[in-house]
Amino acid sequence: MFRRSGGYICLMTLLLHLENAFTAPLADGESKELLFRHISLVFRVLVVSMRYEPGNAKYFLAEVRPSILVSILRGMGCFSHSVRVDTSHTQAWDQLADIDAIRPKLQAIHEIFKSGESVIDGREDGGAPPAIFASIYLLRLLFDLAKDNFDK
User: Fold this and answer.
1) Could you give the CA distance from residue 112 to residue 82 in angstroms, rounded to a whole number?
2) Residue 2 in domain
3) Cα 25 to Cα 9: distance, rounded to the nearest angstrom
């Protein structure tokens, strides 16, 4: 019933309306917390719709396609549109060699990813830039979608 009534189109449209949400300034009364909760709710509905009806999962893969979801998430503004990593800048790679210098940043990223939904409540970003925080949070939602981790 969900797919026949246009549920997936509606969910993708809700996400599509968040284009540049992480690059544009917030309107009055809006908060990043509310934005993260909205995105999380859309992902929860996606998971539940596919959990109990295998036909919905097949429909999502065939008709909606994960590539559409990826382009919509890229359009939110926290991911670049580049599909390749530029390795010509050796200075950035040289900085990675000093593990002690980047350990606190890696720990902060790990904490954001590990905390999942609870990260919204306290928004403990560990000093991570907003785009990095949003990227890690969206990656966590995609991970939970793939593993069916919501409400378990």
Assistant:
1) 24
2) no
3) 27
Phi-psi region of 41 (alpha: psi -120 to 50; beta: other; left: phi over 0): alpha
User: From residue 147, how far is each of 6, 78, 96, 125, 141 by CA, in Å?
Assistant: 24, 23, 30, 24, 10
Residue-wise pLDDT for 26-63, tens only, equals 776 677 788 888 898 999 888 888 888 888 888 888 88
What range defines the domain where residue 17 resides? 7-147
Whether 15 and 73 have beta carbons less than 8 Å apart is answered as yes
Residue 103 lies in a domain: yes
Task: For residue 1, tell me if it sits in a domain.
Answer: no
**Looking at the 3D structure of the chain, how many domains does it have?**
1
**pLDDT tens, the chain, 152 aa long:** 777 788 888 999 999 998 888 887 777 667 778 888 889 899 988 888 888 888 888 888 888 888 888 889 888 888 776 666 666 666 665 666 677 777 777 887 787 777 766 556 555 556 667 777 888 888 888 888 888 877 65
This prediction's pTM? 0.77
d(CA 112, CA 125): 6
